[in-house]
Design goal:
Layout (H helix, E strand, L loop, with lengths): L7 H14 L12 H19 L5 H18 L9 E5 L7 E4 L3 E5 H4 L5 H16 L2 H13 L11 H4 L5 H17 L5 H13 L12 H14 L19
Parallel strand pairs: 1-3
Antiparallel strand pairs: 2-3
Helix pairs in contact: 1-8, 3-5, 5-8, 5-9, 8-10, 9-10
The chain binds zinc ion (ZN).
Length: about 250
């Protein structure tokens, strides 16, 4: 049996090439400047908090600082320099995360109870950052402007539900793919992402998904292919523990 080993230098070079060779982020004109996009994101996060009755406590701020530290680690490996802002939604039923305009990433407490490593949490955050980096949010905003005949300056007056649109299966697969590339570049293990998706699969057993929905089987298969084609097997045992702050 042939056995191929990658030197660290060769592996880093190949990872750099992989990041550079990603499809370039789509440039979708929204008519908003960078500052206006940041403002829109801040307004949407405010609305999200009001609608969902979220307050801020010292403990929530400590967890947000931890989430932000993971965001910052990942951001330094993204092709475009961007500011990301990590937030916590303390609803235990929110077992996911979402991306908003202006680099806002909201993580639900529900998913913090499911991830078993910082690597898995990094993948959750990285997937959302990839949606932003890939231009998916810009595309949503441009579509709202065009279909609802709304001037860019009036987007901030819309509800969060109007602004936040479901992504297509292709956008979700791209966010998984690019998110995994960013997490590996930041030094995390890609295997944690597979474990998390397998946990979702276990939790969904016996349930039927809606026709046309992206299946967990397909998401897992894509990640396994990416790991195999990039020779990331040696990263299997590098999974590090979750480092949530202790209550004060
Ligand atoms: Zn997504």
């Amino acid at each position: 049996m042939f056995h191929r080993t990658f030197t660290r230098a060769a592996w880093l070079a190949s990872l750099g090439a992989l990041i550079a060779s990603r499809a370039l982020a789509k440039s979708v004109p929204t008519g908003l400047t960078g500052d206006q996009m940041q403002h829109l994101g801040a307004v949407m996060w405010q609305k999200w908090q009001t609608e969902r009755g979220i307050g801020q406590t010292p403990q929530i701020l400590r967890v947000e600082r931890y989430l932000q530290s993971i965001c910052d680690k990942l951001a330094s490996h993204l092709p475009h320099a961007m500011q990301f802002h990590a937030h916590l939604d303390c609803d235990p039923a929110f077992k996911s995360a979402v991306a908003m305009p202006g680099g806002q990433v909201v993580v639900g407490v529900g998913i913090l109870a499911l991830v078993d490593s910082e690597d898995a949490l990094a993948m959750v955050i990285s997937h959302e950052m990839a949606h932003i980096e890939d231009g998916d949010i810009d595309e949503d905003l441009a579509q709202i402007e065009a279909t609802q005949h709304i001037a860019p300056s009036r987007l901030a007056g819309l509800s969060v539900d109007t602004i936040m649109k479901d992504h297509t299966n292709e956008q979700e697969l791209a966010a998984d793919r690019n998110g995994l590339i960013f997490t590996v570049a930041a030094g995390y293990s890609p295997f944690a992402a597979i474990r998390l998706l397998e946990l979702f699969q276990y939790m969904a057993r016996g349930k039927t998904s809606r026709p046309g929905a992206l299946t967990l089987d397909r998401r897992i298969a894509q990640l396994r292919d990416l790991i195999a084609s990039n020779h990331w097997d040696h990263l299997k045992d590098l999974i590090r523990p979750l480092n949530l702050p202790e209550p004060a």
